[in-house]
Amino acid sequence: xxxxxxxxxxxxxxxxxIKEADHHYVTVTDDAKAxxxxxxxxxxxxxxxxxxxxxxxxxxxxxxxxxKQLPKYTPNHFPIFFxxxxxxAVRELLRFYIENMDGEKAEKMNMTKxxxxxxxxxxxxKETYDIAVMLEKISKxxxxxxxxxxx
Length: 151
Known about the structure:
The chain is an alpha/beta fold. It is 37% helix and 17% strand.
């Protein structure tokens, strides 16, 4: 399952650019320098790079911090999803993706590649952005939340 434009519309109400698209995102990354085929760019800090470079490397949409100025060169039609907290937006995006993937059992399934490569961010948070590890952590959190709600 690829992450789709309509999925992001469900998560982020503040949108600029094209409002109806049949985009699907093959790559989600915080690294503007990375080749991001049909990418969703999420700059998490200054080391993430410039939106222009992300677009040049294949980004077709971005999740953007409301507190930061959007570059003037941003194309009017380019989809921008605004958030108050980019790191929390990544968490929401992963939770949404995991919940919607649950139960898909195709032998050869198309999957969005999540690639968070910002080494400085990783050191500061002492966390990993490896999708498998993140999925496991989110699954555990969801399991605990479900147990607490039932009790």
